[in-house]
Amino acid sequence: MLHSARRLAARAFAPLLLTFGLVLAVLAWLPSAAMAQASIDAALEKLTTDSYSDTIDAVQAIAVSGHPRAAVIIQALQGGQLAFSAAEKKVYVRVGNDLQEAGSGTAPATAPADLADVRANNRVRGIVSAAMGSLTLLNPDPARRLEAAASVLKSRDAAALPALDQALARETDPAVKAAFAAARAAIVLNKTDASDNERVAAIDLIRKRGGQDALGLLRGLPADTPKRVKDAAEAGAKVVETQLALWSGAQNVWYGLSLGSVLLLAAIGLAITFGVMGIINMAHGEMVMIGAYTTFVVQEVIRAHAPGLFDWSLTIAIPLAFLTSGLVGVILERTVIRWLYGRPLETLLATWGISLILMQAVRTQFGANNREVGAPSFMSGSFDIGHMSITWGRLWIIVFALAVFAALILVLKRTPLGLQMRAVTQNRSMASAMGIRTPFVDALTFGLGCGIAGIAGVALSQIDNVSPNLGQSYIIDSFMVVVFGGVGNLWGTLVGAMTLGVINKFLEPYAGAVLGKILVLVFIILFIQKRPRGLFALKGRSVEA
Amino acid sequence: MITSFLLKGFDRRVTFAVLILAVIAVAVPCFNLYLPQNHPLHVPTYLVQLWGKYAAYAMLAVALDLVWGYCGILSLGHGAFFALGGYAMGMYLMRQIGTRGVYAHPILPDFMVFLNWKELPVTWYGFDWFGYAAFMVMFVPGLLAFVFGWFAFRSRVTGVYLSIITQAMTYALLLAFFRNDMGFGGNNGLTDFKDILGYNIQADTTRAGLFFLTVLAVILSLILASAIVNSKLGKVLLAIRDAESRTRFIGYRVENFKVFVFTVSACMAGIAGALYVPQVGIINPSEFSPANSIEAVIWVAVGGRGTLVGAVVGAVAVNWGKTWFTGAFPAYWLFALGALFVLVTLFLPKGIIGTLSSLMARRPAPAGTLNPKPAE
Amino acid sequence: ATSAALSAQETIKVGILHSLSGTMAISETTLKDTMLFLIDEQNKKGGVLGKKLEAVVVDPASNWPLFAEKARELITKDKVSAVFGCWTSVSRKSVLPVFKELNSILFYPVQYEGEESERNVFYTGAAPNQQAIPAVDYLMSKDGGEVKRWVLAGTDYVYPRTTNKILEAYLKSKGVAEADIMINYTPFGHSDWQTIVSDIKKFGSAGKKTAVVSTINGDANVPFYKELGNQGIKATDIPVVAFSVGEEELAGIDTKPLLGHLAAWNYFQSVKNPANEAFIAKWKEFTKNPKRVTNDPMEAHVIGFAMWVKAVEKAGTADPDKVIDALPGIEAPNLTGGISKMLPNHHITKPVLIGEIKADGQFDVVWQTKGLVPGDAWTDFLPGSKDLEADWVTLKCGNYNTVTKKCGA
Amino acid sequence: MLTVSNIDLFYGAAQALRSVSVSAKAGEISCVLGRNGVGKTSLLRAITGHQPITKGSIVWEGQDLGRMPPYERARRGIAFVPQGREIFPLLTVRENLETGYACLPRSERYVPDEIYDLFPVLKDMLWRRGGDLSGGQQQQLAIGRALVTRPRLLVLDEPTEGIQPSIIKDIGRALEYLRSKGTMAILLVEQYFDFAKELADSYAVLDRGEVVIAGTKDEVDPEQVRAKIAV
Amino acid sequence: MDLAKNSLLYLDGVAVSFDGYKALRGLSMVIAPGEMRAIIGPNGAGKTTMMDVITGKTRPDEGEVLFAGSTDLTQMDEAAIASLGIGRKFQKPTVFESQTVRDNLVLALQGDRGTFATLFHRLTGKEATRLDELLETIKLQDRQNELARNLSHGQKQWLEIGMLLAQEPKLLLVDEPVAGMTDAETMETAHLLRKINETKSVVVVEHDMHFVRELGVKVTVLHEGAVLSEGSIDHVANDPRVIEVYLGR
Ligand SMILES: Nc1ncnc2c1ncn2[C@@H]1O[C@H](COP(=O)(O)OP(=O)(O)OP(=O)(O)O)[C@@H](O)[C@H]1O
Ligand SMILES: Nc1ncnc2c1ncn2[C@@H]1O[C@H](COP(=O)(O)OP(=O)(O)OP(=O)(O)O)[C@@H](O)[C@H]1O
Ligand SMILES: NC(N)=O
Ligand SMILES: [Mg+2]
Ligand SMILES: [Mg+2]
């Protein structure tokens, strides 16, 4: 048994086979401790040559050695905690700041001078993770077992069948059981010595499971497959394909909404400064940028002083970004913009100047390079709904964009301040005659628009460059969205952003990203011909006059 | 009729400007060609070329002021017309290279050879003939403006909506010209020109000649634009700018007037682009970038919107400032330029020329009020 | 920009033509600093030919026509002896006629699409054969994972398109089927990668080992890698090898999810070599920033500058015309332990290194060419250029046709 | 009590008011009359703070208003019904009225029923956008909006312009009612002489920026005023 | 049908609604060539909306609007309608603020409105004389070179009347011409309109009963988007329904 496992392991397609070899070895045959020690010592020596092929041999040997420290060593290699001394030909495991000799686990008297990490490349990492995964078919954690099932499904290797059958027999968790069954079906399907009936049953199972992997399996049958099986597979593939097409439609909608939410975030502040106040605010993008840099600074401070709070960094950054950008906005309004009411076109010139100044200021302060803004753990990773994959980061951004939108609508429509803001921007002198402190309201409105842009910066820092040019890349899109939706109508901005996002994502697969973008622009041009005042046009006498 | 029409263009301001420009058009090439290098008045060739570039920009600014200053059409896509004119000229210059290209292909420009093109695309036909190229310099931007304007103005797209779709237009063209498949050299554009109408493009005399022609073109465009705005049509344009629908109610077909100036202006911009390309030696898609068009708007605003001469002054002033700042304080020039824009808006609300002429008219601007006319 | 402390007689001026503002500032600002650093170092050693060097910095602001204008200004007004500058190919194309007309020298430090050799330009970055082809060779090797299926993803402009054209021809010559190559282009600054990354994922789930060759440039990279991380594409599943992502770019990304993705360059900061370590230490000291990284185009300037200094000394003058003729054959140590040589085609010899991204934002060199690879101006994989050869020493020609035996014919 | 003494007002170089003096007392209606372009509106703009004066003083309740901005004046009880209505076009009728809350304490932020009694049409149109109303409806809204602020000085610039006869009568009755409360000073600019004559407690007639006739209704002969305007 | 054929302006069953609000509900009216008609009615009755419909600013949901017996105005745009010879003065004075008083009138002067015609247009002596006449009529001679934005409210009213006259339209639609005018000016305007009516047709909307009386023409009373009463001024002024909704007691 061991013998055959070794022979298999030596084959080129080693990693997963090896995994099952290990499982079987553990189950069926316990080697003597002495033999294990001998084989592991030889393997460890190979780790000191700093050669990837030696490392691979060593990993394989350690994996099948049955040595009690095998798992510790492999895990250390995976985590980058394995070090070696070329002079002493010894391998060590780092445990915190301490060292352990790899083979024995004892601490060395003195740390060797030429200690260096055992390096891994992709190939090594593949084999290491397979080796680690080998244990997971029987891992107590069902999530790990699911992963193991997925990797077996991918490998479709017949040698894994017995282990899989065993694991299947023991499995109680229905989800994992289904995954095991699917993996088993994948193997059976590709097994030339399985009976046609078995294989057709497998096809059935795979078809029911569906998804991209299933399609790959059903379409990728070996050339010598009997016709009956082939036909069944093709029929199954057709079913899976239609189902996938539906899902990909849903997935596109999702991508569209998530692109839309980014557009919405970028544009929503502009919907205030431009849409409500009528200021052609070319510095809007820089407010977004300032928000993103605020996030960067917050994370730097947290990294330096309170690493434990890292997951809270965005939550902390949101109010700070609002205040920072908002404050910059208020200062700009008081010093520059307020002289320009009634001269809307000149705001273009002044804010363009301001945008240049802000960009260069940030460049001078933070350098021209991108800055790193990390993702908190709740925004990393993804989950599946059916055959559609949803990343947490995007989901949060959508939620966030809608929340900001809702908050803004509430402020504008339901608070006295909102009413005053609208009154002032519609007729400044009359608002003043009604007792509204116009300078205060102006500053606050512009500050609000800028503050919201700052908040958008927090979210955008999660998906884009944090560099002095950040704002420039959103300013055109923002104006497009606001205008497309209809100037002065917040709902228009919402619907406009989402529409453009979804259209873009439906065009992209057919036309490609570049042509897709061109088509979206052409669409906007044509759409405006049909509705010269945007999607949600303001109507009525006062507008048409 | 035409002469009496053009004579209307010579109002005081324009006449003055034309005189100065005419002196520059003659003096600069002469000082460059006929004065010895060490003469204090000698104009080095690189300045001739630099000022020639400014002149091309000035012409673009005049074209923009015509539509923006007088008809209220804030085009954020005028750079596209400029670039199209430039491409038409670039294609002519490219064809003039002939077998002097690196692959020495008798017909295909280099970039086509190395991307494996087998034959010249139809769009390139005829560009080896200067007359055709010169025609296309005006025709392509003019046609685009006409078609675009025809639809947009008929649908009564106005204000920011129009501005944004002109921006979308230039942005779409930018992306399209980036694509190598379009057959216009992709991102690298057209460059490495050798000669124009048989003259070596790098010769001082050619440079001087191009400079002269460009300034002459600025003069002509100033006169033409000024004649237009001083005619009754000019008054209609102003009326449209201030109260479009009211203009309709007294019987003017607003869309026709708009299409007319928009097209004239686009042709002007195309010529400016065509004069620009041989002087800077390259045309590539970045000329379509929306920021370029916005910059052109800013030149006009700095010089004084609706003054024509201001457009020339603004274009030259801003670009000269840019040249100077980028050399003198490379790390801080954006502060200087940004501050310039802010200060002009705050302290010269009508731009350089606008403010100068109201000072000369001794009519102090309406005092005190920030908002003399409440928003409707 | 000229610090006018010394009169023109006493100094040799060196022009620095890198964008300090606009979209390219992100990459080019560092190169300006590098040049200032190198000039500073050289002056500490006594300058060149007994004269101090003086840097003239201008900002072409990521604006291509402005590059030409500034180049002209540097050469005619500031009378610089050589210019170190440009990043994008279009900026180089824009200044080319100026350098030719005024017969000056440009050192161009960035990897590019090739298909060019000019008397006035010295290409110290990689030609396609010094980066793209070795990278693909590596991925096809056992260590690289024996990749069978290829995604060529790039920004839609000339460098990626040309590189991909060369790669496509190369892959097909290696027996890769049409169906196993997916080519995808995106606009500059593309920021929404959801669809494309999921397409890549789909393309890679067909059962054959798949890799992405990325010629995505500039700002688009950060969102691209962030999306890769988000969608959970690991280097062990689908490795991405990039030609335009270096230490500088990684400094702006959280690299933990990117562990194992690759880049191909001629230099990595992590290369273990005394010359490199000394350089890094001095660089950090010069910039007063212990976190400041180094990268490949910087090294290109290091080599180019050293070659220029040697050539000036050899020629006994900084006169560009003489220096141009003196440059071919000049050797200068690179920072990876070899000696690079300026070839008659004005390209240099360089090692090719493949690095995997580490968690700390550095690269782990996993493979490198045995010796130095000479840069090839005209690729052998495109029909239009395979007969061309550049040689400014004997043939005095940048595009000599070996079939017709004529220069430029 | 409002006392305007000897004010000058310029638009650029053009002088619109020359040493104009008028006054308004609580419980009285003071009428300013004059032909087109004589400076009536300019006077009101000076009082409400929309246009700076270069000479003279405007004293309200003992305080010189000087260069005080309009909103401060509104907070001191001066409400304005401007010529041309100046409705907030995109606010609903209700919101237009509520803009008056800005200078009220929280407890008084409601629309008094009298306003709806006076202009019933407003009540029907609360949710209509101000800009969509007909000209006369807008005029009614403008008056109603001014009253929301509970002013102590009500400044009206040709309030009857464009209003149907029956409502003009109502407005007249309303002004009489407001006067009768005794707490409000009313400054009325009118062209419709018969309407003004009915209401006026005192007159000031402007011509070319100067006051040419001034006095209480007892001192001034209405026919003389009418004649002056008719020239 | 005859009614339509012999009329200058013929409205039949015109209905307009805005977001559900019915501003006009089956309005019918006939103006004969050479007629002057006064229209009164409560605020919001639909008078201005009616003019909007005639001049092409608002498209009716239902109903017929014919000019000179046959031309269907609902199919034409503003400029085309204006070229037919229908001129309008707006309720809220709208003039070209940044042009001089004189240029405002030049723009309005009758003449070819084509693009090239205006481009090459030169002011003839006849036109100049006409301009001077008009300036005198509206009493703005001494302000003719000032920008229209510097005029007072009432002066803008006059300028707009001047522009209407300059167009020499066949049909004048005048919305509240005497709002903001003194009594004397009101009478003058009435005379002016009567004089114009000698050669042209006029539809005038006003709330000033003295003025309407002075015109001495047939009066139509609109109410809630339809005709409430029609007849001489004395007839409508004594109509109890008109008193109820409009005149008041
Ligand atoms: N913004 C302005 N700029 C320059 N001049 C102005 C301005 N507003 C008014 N004027 C001029 O000032 C003078 C007085 O105007 P004002 O509006 O006060 O007149 P008015 O008495 O209210 O007239 P009306 O009865 O027509 O409303 C007029 O001659 C007018 O032309
Ligand atoms: N665009 C619109 N949206 C909503 N309602 C409108 C619109 N235009 C007009 N209305 C309504 O239609 C009705 C008729 O308005 P119109 O302006 O025609 O009245 P009018 O008879 O001219 O009144 P006035 O005498 O006050 O000028 C009014 O109630 C008005 O509020
Ligand atoms: N040459 C490049 N990378 O554009
Ligand atoms: Mg007035
Ligand atoms: Mg009305």
From TrEMBL, chain A:
Locations listed in the record: Cell membrane
Transmembrane segments: 253-280, 312-332, 344-362, 395-412, 440-459, 479-503, 510-528
Transport listed as a keyword: yes
GO molecular function: transmembrane transporter activity
Xref: InterPro entries: ABC_transp_permease (IPR001851), ABC_UrtB_bac (IPR017779), BCAA_transport_permease (IPR052157)
Entries under CDD domains matching the protein: TM_PBP1_LivH_like (cd06582)
Keywords on record: Amino-acid transport, Cell membrane, Membrane, Transmembrane, Transmembrane helix, Transport
Bilayer topology: Multi-pass membrane protein
Cellular component, GO annotation: plasma membrane
One example of a Gene Ontology biological process annotation: amino acid transport
Keyword Transport in record: yes
Family from the record: Belongs to the binding-protein-dependent transport system permease family. LivHM subfamily.
NCBIfam families in UniProt: urea_trans_UrtB
Name of the molecule in the record: Urea ABC transporter permease subunit UrtB
Species this chain originates from: Prosthecodimorpha staleyi
Organism ancestry: Bacteria, Pseudomonadati, Pseudomonadota, Alphaproteobacteria, Hyphomicrobiales
From TrEMBL, chain B:
InterPro entries: ABC_transp_permease (IPR001851), ABC_transptr_urea_perm_UrtC (IPR017778), LivM-like (IPR043428)
CDD domains (alphabetical): TM_PBP1_LivM_like
The UniProt record lists the keyword tRNA-binding: no
Domain of life: Bacteria
Transmembrane annotation, as ranges: 14-35, 55-85, 97-117, 129-153, 160-178, 208-229, 257-277, 297-320, 332-353
Cellular location(s): Cell membrane
Pfam family, one: BPD_transp_2
One cellular component term from this protein's GO annotations in UniProt: plasma membrane
GO MF terms held by the record: branched-chain amino acid transmembrane transporter activity
Topology of this chain in the membrane: Multi-pass membrane protein
Keywords for this protein: Cell membrane, Membrane, Transmembrane, Transmembrane helix
Protein name: Urea ABC transporter permease subunit UrtC
From TrEMBL, chain D:
Keyword Signal: no
Gene3D superfamilies: P-loop containing nucleotide triphosphate hydrolases (3.40.50.300)
The keyword ATP-binding is annotated on this UniProt entry: yes
GO biological process: L-amino acid transport
A GO MF label: ATP hydrolysis activity
Pfam families found in the cross-reference section: ABC_tran (PF00005)
Domain (ABC transporter): residue spans on this chain: 2-231
Keywords: Amino-acid transport, ATP-binding, Nucleotide-binding, Transport
Lineage top rank: taxon: Bacteria
PROSITE patterns: ABC_TRANSPORTER_2 (PS50893)
InterPro entries: AAA+_ATPase, ABC_transporter-like_ATP-bd, ABC_transptr_urea_ATP-bd_UrtE, BCAA_Transport_ATP-bd_LivF, P-loop_NTPase
Family assignment from sequence similarity: Belongs to the ABC transporter superfamily.
Protein name in the entry: Urea ABC transporter ATP-binding subunit UrtE
UniProtKB/TrEMBL annotation, chain E:
GO cellular component terms, A-Z: plasma membrane
Protein name: Urea ABC transporter ATP-binding protein UrtD
Domain (ABC transporter) ranges: 9-249
Keyword annotations: ATP-binding, Nucleotide-binding, Transport
GO terms, molecular function: ATP binding; ATP hydrolysis activity
Record InterPro entries: AAA+_ATPase, ABC_AA/LPS_Transport, ABC_transporter-like_ATP-bd, ABC_transptr_urea_ATP-bd_UrtD, BCA_ABC_TP_C, P-loop_NTPase
Gene3D superfamilies: P-loop containing nucleotide triphosphate hydrolases (3.40.50.300)
Any Pfam family: BCA_ABC_TP_C
UniProt KW Disulfide bond keyword: no
